[in-house]
Amino acid sequence: MEVSVYNIKGEDTGRKVILNDAIFGIEPNDHAIYLDVKQFMANQRQGTHKAKERSEVAGSTKKLGRQKGGGGARRGDINSPVLVGGGRVFGPRPRNYSFKLNKKVKQLARKSALAYKLQENALIVLEDFAFEAPKTKNFVEILKNLNLCEKKSLFVLPESNNVVSLSARNLQRTKVVNASSVNTYSILNADTLVVTENSIEVIDGILNKKEA
After folding, report:
1. 8, 29, 41, 53: least surrounded by Cβ within 10 Å?
2. Cα Rg for the chain, rounded, in angstroms?
């Protein structure tokens, strides 16, 4: 599939790149996307939640009343869960929320997310660019030229570029990532995906690996 290449001025360069149908032209798999996004969100959780149980609450251990005949529920000391200020029954404990997901499922999810962006006409191929110095003004100019100022955008670069990354760091709706680290959640969370020419080769190399 051929897609036009634009420059940072928002102009069509007249050149076209061929997108791999094995990546951008597949039938998206919604369940694979669900699993990959679920794993990504689970990995963001710290899991440090903790509530004090009966044995951990500070308080006297004196029995408050007789065992029977009081007309109410049985209760022991002031740390009883049935009393205000007592311990919590089966409260949250620190835990790890991460879980395993097969590589092929994650690859399928990323391919599906890229395919969705292409189907929705939300993918722009941009010629490779660089800045001499970090300037947010320069990056904002690119967003204006591409009509992305009011949209959430994800810029995918072939490799780390601190100058470009620093230029976009203060822009709330814009994120810059490397092609090797782009994930399903980031792709779907952006309104528009902007991929540079060389990034396409990197993505193709990662997602179209042949099993030995």
Report:
1. 41
2. 27
| Of 152, 132, 131, 156, the residue nearest 143 (C-alpha) | 152
b/e code 187-212 from CB counts within 10 Å (16+ = b): bbebebbbbbbebbebbbeebeeeee
Q: C-alpha angle 135/140/141, rounded to 5°?
A: 100
Beta bridge partners of 2: 18
- Topology of domain 2-45+98-207 in CATH is Ribosomal Protein L4; Chain: A; (3.40.1370)
User: Six-digit token pair at 196?
Assistant: 């540079």
| % helix, strand, coil for the chain, step of 5 | 35, 15, 50
**18 CB contacts (<8 Å, ≥6 apart)?**
1, 2
**pTM for the predicted model, two decimal places:** 0.83
Per-residue pLDDT tens digits of the chain, which is 212 residues long: 889 999 999 999 999 999 999 999 999 999 999 999 999 999 999 999 999 999 999 999 999 888 899 888 888 899 999 899 999 999 999 999 999 999 999 999 999 999 999 999 999 999 999 999 999 999 999 999 999 999 999 999 999 899 999 999 999 999 999 999 999 999 999 999 999 999 999 999 998 875 43
E strand intervals along the chain: 2-6, 12-18, 123-126, 153-157, 174-178, 192-196
